[in-house]
Every structure is written in structure tokens, then in C-alpha cells.
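Researcher: I'd like a candidate sequence for this fold, 291 residues long. If you have to choose between options at a position, lean toward the conservative one.
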């Protein structure tokens, strides 16, 4: 029997994905996955629905979240895994971060308007519901309005870092987020590092609480994956992998279909074991009302 496969990085419309969380679980079942980690940007709001549907279908849903933090090269994405979504500290932190995303979307729309682009904040907001607002929501409006040919064009001309519609997010430090993640019983995995981060820099990040590295990701070449595996082995970091799926829209090489990468369930089991060990070692506080 082939080993069961998992996908430890994907998004729902709780952030910038295209589908409701329950549909993500449904698609995971369709892709033959044993488990997924739902890792929406700056929210765990989709986890409950995805987990409920997952339980019905026999797909495990690991509660996750993708945080953005400061890095020597700009921005680093950290996947928090095995989080406890109802935890008050986590909820407060994420609510503050989402409020900042809201203000930033407003600023991006203003910039675009000054450039003469026909776009209204209402369009962006209505596409996001009460989810975490991000550049993809702005990009989708640019595509709908015919300003951009597709998402890549919207990022390439307006929304990519350094482009005229781009606005920085206020970023927490890595230490702030790893401390939070550990405080709510989870582990922190560096997402899609690509060629960023020398071994020395990753060691420094590890000193600040990093538990693992996402080695398998659609943006990683085989050589990049190997480089990260080697570093993870040398530093004793856990490894992870996922598609970074956001939906059906073609987003270029940085995203793949749900379950399209080969991530064996053993990786999830090892991450979970790492989580158990570190939680025990750190004596993490338990949230109210959970065993
Ligand atoms: P934000 O967190 O609001 O800065 O938005 C970052 C998100 O935008 C990423 O998670 C991707 O989903 C998406 N994204 C970034 N660059 C591109 C791109 N070139 N094409 C399509 N989507 C992108
Ligand atoms: Fe995204
Ligand atoms: Fe990311
Ligand atoms: Zn992601």
C-alpha cells in the first residue's frame, strides 16, 4: 500500500484562498489526502469548519496559521502548527494583525486610485468577507475590472514588493511570534525560505524559537529542497511540506494544487512528536476548557 500523503500548507477564504474551509477539507478528501494543515494568513477562523467537515470525511485537519514576521531579507512567513484556535492570546494577536491588514488595504487602494486606477475599497472588502485582507483580494479586483490581465500581472505591475501599489505590513519580530505559538501549544515552521537564509541565519532563527523548516514547496527547486534538508538535519530542525494552495486561479510557480506535492504522513507524525516534546519541555500553558 502506498504511504498516506498529507499537505501541510493551504489556504481557505478565511484569508486569501478562494474556497470555504469545509470545501478545502472536501477537496483534500478528493485528492486522497490523510491530513491537511489549514494555514490561513493571520487567522484560525477557518479551522473549526474545516475540521468538522474533515472529521465527517476522514481527513485530519491540523489547526495552523501563517504569520508574517521581520527577517534580515525583509519578510519571513512562519507556519504555526498544532495551535489551539480558541486561545485568547492567539485570538487577540490575530485580531490586531487583521486590523492592520485592513488599514493597509485601504492605503493600497488609495495609492492605486492616485495612479488613476479605477478601484474602490468596497470591492476589495466585499471579496474578502470578514477574512484576513491581503494583496490577493486587491489583485482579484484589478483582474475583475480588467486593469490587470491576471494575478501575476497585478502583482508584477502594482502589488509586488516595491511596485507602486505596494504597502508594507507592520511586522512583528520572529521572537514575538515563536513565543506566542509556543505559548498556545504549537510549533513554528519557516515557510518557503527558498534561497533565503544562510545556515548561520537559520541557526539564529532557531535560537529565537524556530522548530522546523518547510523544505518541500512549489517554489523550491530540487536543489533548494536539498539545501534546506541538509541544513535542517545539521541543525536538528523538523521538516515540513505543502502546496500553499489558494484555489483554482493560476498563481504561477509559487503555488500548487492541493495535495500535488508528495508529503508523506511520516513528516506530520514527526512534527507532532516534536510538538509533544517541545510542549512538554516548555510546559506550555493550556487554554481554558481544553484537556
Ligand atoms: P500579503 O500577505 O497581503 O502581503 O499577500 C501575500 C500573498 O499574496 C501570498 O500569500 C500569496 O498568496 C499572494 N502572492 C504574492 N505574490 C504573488 C504573485 N506574484 N502572484 C500571485 N499571488 C501572489
Ligand atoms: Fe496567500
Ligand atoms: Fe507564504
Ligand atoms: Zn501560504
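Model: Candidate sequence:
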Amino acid at each position: 500500500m502506498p504511504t498516506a500523503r498529507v499537505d501541510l500548507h493551504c489556504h481557505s477564504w478565511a484569508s486569501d484562498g478562494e474556497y470555504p474551509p469545509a470545501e478545502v477539507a472536501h477537496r483534500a478528501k478528493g485528492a486522497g489526502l490523510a491530513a491537511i494543515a489549514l494555514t490561513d494568513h493571520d487567522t484560525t477562523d477557518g479551522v473549526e469548519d474545516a475540521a468538522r467537515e474533515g472529521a465527517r470525511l476522514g481527513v485530519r485537519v491540523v489547526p495552523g496559521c501563517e504569520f508574517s514576521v521581520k527577517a534580515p531579507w525583509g519578510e519571513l512567513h512562519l507556519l504555526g502548527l498544532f495551535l489551539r484556535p480558541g486561545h485568547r492570546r492567539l485570538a487577540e494577536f490575530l485580531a490586531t494583525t487583521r486590523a492592520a491588514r485592513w488599514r493597509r488595504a485601504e492605503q493600497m487602494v488609495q495609492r492605486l486610485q492616485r495612479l488613476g486606477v479605477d478601484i474602490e475599497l468596497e470591492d476589495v472588502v466585499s471579496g474578502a468577507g470578514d477574512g484576513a485582507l491581503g494583496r490577493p483580494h486587491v489583485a482579484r479586483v484589478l483582474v475583475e475590472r480588467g486593469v490587470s490581465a491576471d494575478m501575476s500581472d497585478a502583482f508584477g505591475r502594482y502589488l509586488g514588493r516595491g511596485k507602486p501599489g505596494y504597502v508594507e505590513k507592520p511586522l512583528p519580530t520572529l521572537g514575538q511570534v515563536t513565543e506566542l505559538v509556543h505559548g498556545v501549544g504549537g510549533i513554528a515552521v519557516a515557510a518557503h525560505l527558498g534561497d533565503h537564509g544562510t545556515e548561520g541565519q537559520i541557526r539564529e532563527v532557531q535560537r529565537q524559537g524556530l522548530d522546523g523548516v518547510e523544505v518541500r514547496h512549489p517554489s523550491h527547486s530540487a536543489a533548494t529542497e536539498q539545501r534546506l534538508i541538509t541544513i535542517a538535519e545539521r541543525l536538528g530542525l523538523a521538516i515540513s511540506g505543502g502546496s500553499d494552495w489558494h484555489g483554482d486561479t493560476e498563481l504561477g510557480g509559487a503555488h500548487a494544487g492541493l495535495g500535488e506535492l508528495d508529503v508523506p504522513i511520516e513528516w506530520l507524525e514527526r512534527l507532532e512528536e516534536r510538538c509533544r516534546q517541545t510542549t512538554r519541555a516548555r510546559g506550555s500553558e493550556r487554554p481554558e476548557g481544553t484537556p
